[in-house]
Design brief:
2 domains, single chain, alpha/beta, Rossmann fold, N-(1-d-carboxylethyl)-l-norvaline Dehydrogenase, domain 2, 347 residues
Length: 347
Amino acid sequence: MKNTYNINKPIGILGVGSFGTVLANIIAEKYNVLVYARKSSSLHDINQLKFHRGIVIHPNVTATDDISHIAHQCDIIFPVVPSYAFRAVIQEIEPFLTSNHILIHGTKGFDVVKDIDNPEEKIYPSDILTMSELIENQTPVYRVGCMSGPNLSKEIASHQPAATVVASKFKEVIQIGTQVLHNERFQVFGSYDIKGIELAGIFKNYIAIAAGASSGIGLGENVKALLITRGIAEMIEIGKFLNVDAKSFLGLAGIGDLVATCNSPLSRNYTVGYRIAKGEKLEDVIASMNEAAEGINTVKVIKNLSETMNISAPLVHIIHKVIFENYPLEQGIKILMRLNAGFDVSF
């Protein structure tokens, strides 16, 4: 590999959910890994049992509950925590970060300064931050990246081949991220359009909810294909208002991730849609899940943003009706079929 870097220090990971755990194992094949875990049970599982979330932990992985230790020991850190907790974790580690650090996050969600549950609030583009923008705003770190793609944790944990995109404005971050992550089962592609890659990973979550719901009521692959392709068009339309080029939605982190999450019961967002379609209440589905389905909040944010900015986003409005307003999914599909179709590809 060209432009390899001498990495003597351990690689840090913030968060030991399913993806954080498999990410630690990927990196541990070549480097020592130091992961941050709040719960004593997680520390015990990782350090003593070497078994966490149903995954055998690589010997090179060590857990700590001291976040300052991560910052002091690691120059390269991967924050992989849910979007609702991301700001708090970044603020916790911020006093120990310097401009020498590199942060590459793996979180597919928004940080929103407004109350997304308040229908009186109007959300504007300036009210929404991606995780890379949050890191840049809250810390002295300027070499920031993200990783995003069709990365279903259970498949990676079972050593199945997969790939991801490492995006950053800095070539060095892409090269280091590739060096750290790439192995014979995990391919890494690069992109300079970090915001586009982040938005692709965020937007696809609400399309996955729709795909899961369509499967839940027994609809076939034709409808799913309609949802995926109309979803891509809608993602691109929203992206225009957030100053993102359409090309970002057409690669591995866009179409690739969309196809994976819209077709797999391993996807949390797909599962949410499926279970709601089977008659479960949203609050019961959320309560029974071990980890967050980012698409739930994404639906709220994009629905509000589209209304505020007069963006055409019929699919997100239908999904919002179904999961938050007890609207029958069958009626939602009928609305979708009655829309003025227009041209197939207009972007």
